[in-house]
Write a structure and sequence with these properties.
The protein is α/β, with parallel strands linked by helices. 40% of the residues lie in helices and 28% in strands. The protein contains ten helices and ten strands. The strands form two sheets. An eight-stranded mixed β-sheet has the order 4-1-5-10-6-9-7-8, sandwiched between helices. Helix 1 (2-22) runs parallel beside helix 3.
């Protein structure tokens, strides 16, 4: 009940802010293109169940789009494919994407919809996996998602790793002991255990990786119309003032 009230407050606050700012009407929105929204599987921020994309970051994006009145369809892909689609197709949004200097000019950046503080995770029963430093971690097999921003950083650190299509596949390799480590935020480890139908304590967090604290953004293909970007950015200003948004960005959800 509390959550429902928070999201109702979010929608009403954002809607008033948007309408006052844009003086929007149905004619304005109907003339704009339908958007494609792409993301990857990454519980609890992005989930997929019974053909429906959900999760905490997804709800923020859905509320934001509802405030604008823009129509959108949601698709969940392996990260590399989601990134390719968003990079190449106009009127496509993507989340949660790290904002880097190499990516900057290829997207319109709307705002953060997730936060990650990444580090090494293993199975709780693996007492043989001892990681107190980056050098320790290099001794073990690591799985990481293809196209993930962390790949660049770990390559700089001299890691070898197995590339997977999404974080669920990385965890599945960990569960079957085909790798010894995965990279994740400690706040989300229990959610992944739930997703895989495992006890909440099945995984344990070992060590944070320096310089891998980052925000995941909602971004739009660079060829998306300016009017769409304007509506999205104004709606985001309404969203980020809400308690629901603050909970997602701090991980307390």
């Amino acid at each position: 009940m509390v959550k429902n009230k928070q999201y109702l407050f979010l929608a009403l606050t954002g809607l008033c802010f948007l309408c006052l700012s844009l003086r929007c009407n149905s004619h304005d929105v109907s003339a704009l293109p339908t958007l494609t929204v792409v993301t990857e599987l990454s519980p609890p921020n992005q989930t997929y169940s019974n053909g429906v994309v959900g999760g905490t970051s997804t709800r923020l994006v859905q509320e934001l789009l509802q405030l604008t009145g823009l129509k959108a369809s949601y698709q969940i892909y392996p990260w590399a494919r989601a990134f390719k689609v968003a990079s190449e197709q106009a009127n496509t949004l993507i989340y949660s994407i790290a904002r880097t200097s190499l990516r900057e000019r290829h997207f319109h950046w709307i705002g953060p919809v997730a936060k990650f503080e990444l580090g090494f995770v293993t199975n709780t029963y693996r007492n043989d996996v001892i990681v107190n430093s980056l050098e320790d971690a290099k001794k073990y097999r690591l799985a990481i998602q293809r196209g993930d921003i962390a790949v660049e950083r770990l390559k700089e650190y001299g890691f070898d790793y197995v590339l997977t299509s999404d974080i669920t596949q990385s965890y599945q390799l960990l569960v079957t002991n085909k790798v010894d480590l995965v990279l994740d935020d400690p706040r989300y480890v229990k959610s992944m255990a739930d997703t895989l139908n495992l006890p909440k304590g099945h995984f344990r967090f070992l060590l944070s990786v320096p310089n891998l604290s980052l925000h995941g953004y909602l971004a739009a293909n660079i060829h998306t119309p300016d009017e769409v970007i304007k509506k999205l950015r104004i709606a985001f200003e309404g969203i980020k003032r809400t308690q629901a948004y603050q909970e997602v960005l701090t991980g307390y959800h």
